[in-house]
Write the structure tokens for this entry.
Amino acid sequence: MRRILIVNGPNMGHLGRRQPEIYGDATLDSLISAVKTAFAADDIAIDHFQSDIEGEIVHRLLQADDEADIAGIVLNAAAYTHTSVAIADAVAAIAKPVVEVHMSNVAAREQVRQRSLIAPYCAGTITGFGALSYFLAVKALIS
Ligand code: DQA
């Protein structure tokens, strides 16, 4: 069984209550459960890690590089996407493929969200499809 690690950054744990007009009303737990269910038939296990703390995200990414059965990583670094050289460096440092995801279409939002420091080190970016962004990212990694 291959594993895919989904990493969510700051404020993503508040999904469901957080600006539902932008991020919808599903909780993070229900979103991750739905992704797990969708890919179980493909013999893909989904691991999930959420943290509001930059260094913990760096640590989890580096740790994943040593976990042989992790085939790739889906990363929604949330606001750290736009600010974190440390997370960008971690993505660059690891050998596992990383797909950047965003629920909202960051290209159509405030200017500060239009720059991603991590995108240059990712296999690709999926943005703007709400919860579906995560499904598409897992699909991209396993294809
Ligand atoms: C986000 C977009 C970011 O700009 C924002 O800071 C988030 C969520 C998204 O999934 O649309 O927290 O990554």
User: Anything to note?
Assistant: Strands lie at 2-8, 44-50, 70-76, 98-102, 124-127.
